[in-house]
Amino acid sequence: MPFKTLTIKEEVYKKLVAIKREDESFSDLLEKLSGKDIAILRKLRGSINIKEKDEMIKDIYKRREERRYE
Asked: What is the pTM of this model?
């Protein structure tokens, strides 16, 4: 199977690490994110108004980080 090297920004890398499961490779994660479910998410984007969105996102990332080191 051929491989490709990708260059991404550090902030993007950190985001991917935060959502990647421990038993999942980056290839698996990117394949999952590029699947047909992403089209559904794109359609939903902007359709929900969350008042405290930034706080909620920070909390999600904090909890994910905590789970990674358990």
From this structure: 0.47
